[in-house]
Design a protein that fits this description.
Elements: H1 3-14, H2 20-37, H3 46-58, H4 63-83, H5 109-118, H6 123-135, H7 139-144, E1 150-151, E2 156-159, E3 168-171, H8 174-186, H9 207-221, H10 227-240, H11 245-252, H12 257-278
Antiparallel strand pairs: 1-2, 2-3
Helix pairs in contact: 2-4, 6-8, 6-10, 10-12
């Protein structure tokens, strides 16, 4: 079967399984491999893939980039094998590159306290911080959040479409509830989004606006952090309070093995730090 036809079939099959951007990258990576080898999908061998990965290494591609490209190939050729387009998965036994992983940076309770102090009186900005810290949601999920997603009596928020197009439930604290209610009560509009664009009041706030604000906070406080740092902080602080890793991963909406491993290292590091405080 023609390679373009197979790629289109893969697109149709996976468009409801993974995010649009991720799927786009998968297709780009497969096309790059095919262009490099000059072969059709059913002719690609393990040696071809190893040759392409070696080429990427010589071109100084970062290990995480190569990891991502190999993940794309493994997923795609597994699909091809299942559908009978190929008789053997050429990517199946290829090992992922070794990566020296640095632990993600997260805020201490003292640093978090300084951020809260900085945002005192800024209702919307403080509410954003508290929602990020209490729920561990991704910035894209925060921006898309609607009022109807919030269950105040149960203190839960429904995330209808996460990164991998699967909904989940996240929890929020009484402290978060207090600041979020105070902000929403100050609003004089009927817009459905929890946080609104500063330019178009009928649209949700965008990631660039939130990111820009966090850069300003970093400059004022003289320690760097981003919205995603708060997600790491959420993970580390829950680990230090004794929540099982499996529960944290459910709240984070994680499924991919590399994400699981990455956050597991953060979890273990956080628990060790807690242990050291008592010894």
């Amino acid at each position: 079967m023609n390679s373009d036809v197979i790629l289109n079939q893969f697109l149709l099959e996976y468009q409801f399984r993974i995010g649009k951007d991720t799927l786009t990258h998968y297709l780009i990576n497969v096309r790059q491999l095919l262009h490099f080898t000059g072969k059709s999908i059913d002719s690609v061998t393990k040696s071809d893939i190893l040759g392409w990965l070696g080429y990427l290494k010589k071109k100084k591609y970062k290990p995480w980039t190569v990891w991502g490209k190999l993940t794309s190939l493994k997923t795609f050729f597994k699909y091809c094998l299942e559908e009978g387009y190929i008789h053997k998965n050429p990517a199946e036994t290829i090992p992922f590159p070794r990566i020296e992983e640095k632990l993600p940076y997260y805020l201490s309770l003292d640093q978090l306290g300084k951020v809260r102090e900085l945002l005192q009186g800024r209702l919307e900005e403080r509410a954003i911080l508290e929602v990020l810290y209490a729920t561990g949601v991704r910035i894209s999920e925060l921006c898309a959040m609607k009022k109807e997603d919030i269950n105040w009596s149960e203190r839960i928020i429904h995330i209808p479409k996460g990164k991998y197009k699967k909904g989940r439930i996240v929890l929020f604290t009484r402290n978060c509830e207090e600041h979020l209610k105070r902000y929403l009560d100050s609003r004089r509009d009927n817009q459905p989004y929890v946080f609104l664009s500063v330019v178009l009041k009928n649209r949700p706030i965008d990631k660039n606006t939130v990111g820009s604000r966090f850069r300003k906070y970093s400059k004022c406080l003289e320690f760097k952090f981003t919205p995603h740092t708060i997600r790491y902080t959420f993970t580390a602080h829950l680990a230090q309070k004794g929540m099982p890793l499996e529960c944290i991963q459910t709240l984070l909406g994680h499924e991919e093995p590399q994400q699981t491993r990455y956050y597991a290292r953060l979890y273990n590091h956080s628990r060790t730090e807690l242990y050291d405080e008592y010894m």
